[in-house]
């Protein structure tokens, strides 16, 4: 069991039950799309985010991204971190049939995967020393464009290929990918992943 400083928001109680076996922290639920019509619930998320930081951990399907974007629009970015589970196709044991897109949700993820996605998101594990941040300027949107990962005719397909390689959900936007690259990798590692190194390094 890990202790994490930030609160975590998930979609429903089964997600919460699964996550509570991995981490000890405040875990809040959106109640699915209920967050759209429940100002008190959103106010609670905003309050938790300001007090201790908030990690958004929704499913990797389209509905999960709609909920994530709603929270993103309501909570200032400096208080938010985003954790993304990989696209894994299958069905949770309690369900009769798979979800609309056939993907496992947070409740279907093994503990090791949940730990890894929280680490990738930059969660503060209280038992551990803060990881040493590696220097170098962050990648820019312009560099993603130069790598063909945004703004071009084949960008979506190239981005999907990279997302699959990094075990990130296919619905991630170029901006979300950029945030993950800058938050989880050194500049050199991110350049290598995007095959930018050769293009941005002089002779």
Fill in the keyword field for this structure:
41% helix; 6 strands; two-stranded parallel sheet; 203 residues; alpha/beta; disordered C terminus; four-stranded parallel sheet
Q: How does this model look, in words?
A:
- The strands form 2 sheets. Strands 4-2-5-6 form a 4-stranded parallel beta sheet.
- Helices cover 41% and strands 8% of the residues.
- It is globular, with a radius of gyration of 17 Å.
- Helix 3 (62-74) links the parallel strand 5 and strand 6 (80-82).
- Residues 197-203 have low confidence and may be disordered.
- The protein is an alpha/beta fold and 203 residues long.
- It is built from 9 helices and 6 strands, in the order ββαββαβαβαααααα.
- It has helices at 13-19, 39-52, 62-74, 111-121, 141-146, 155-165, 174-184, 187-193, 197-200; strands at residues 2-3, 7-10, 23-24, 27-29, 54-56, 80-82.
Write the topology of this structure.
Blueprint (H helix, E strand, L loop, with lengths): L1 E2 L3 E4 L2 H7 L3 E2 L2 E3 L9 H14 L1 E3 L5 H13 L5 E3 L28 H11 L19 H6 L8 H11 L8 H11 L2 H7 L3 H4 L3
Parallel strand pairs: 1-3, 2-4, 2-5, 5-6
């Amino acid at each position: 069991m890990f202790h994490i400083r930030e609160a975590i928001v998930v979609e429903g109680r089964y997600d919460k039950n699964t996550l509570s076996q991995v981490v000890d922290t405040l875990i809040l639920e959106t109640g699915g799309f209920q967050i759209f019509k429940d100002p008190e619930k959103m106010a609670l998320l905003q309050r938790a985010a300001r007090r201790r930081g908030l990690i958004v951990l929704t499913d990797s399907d389209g509905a999960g991204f709609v909920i994530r974007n709603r929270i993103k629009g309501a909570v200032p970015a400096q208080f938010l971190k985003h954790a993304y589970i990989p696209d894994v196709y299958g069905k949770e044991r309690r369900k009769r049939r798979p979800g609309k897109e056939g993907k496992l949700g947070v409740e279907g993820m093994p503990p090791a995967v949940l730990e890894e996605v929280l680490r990738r998101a930059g969660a503060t594990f209280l038992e551990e020393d803060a990881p040493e941040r590696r220097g170098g300027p962050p990648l820019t949107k312009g560099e993603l464009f130069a790598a063909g990962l945004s703004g071009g005719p084949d960008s979506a397909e190239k981005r999907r290929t990279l997302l699959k390689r990094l075990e990130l959900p296919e619905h991630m936007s170029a901006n979300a990918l950029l945030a993950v690259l800058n938050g989880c990798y050194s500049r050199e590692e991110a350049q290598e992943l995007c095959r930018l190194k050769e293009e941005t390094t002089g002779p």
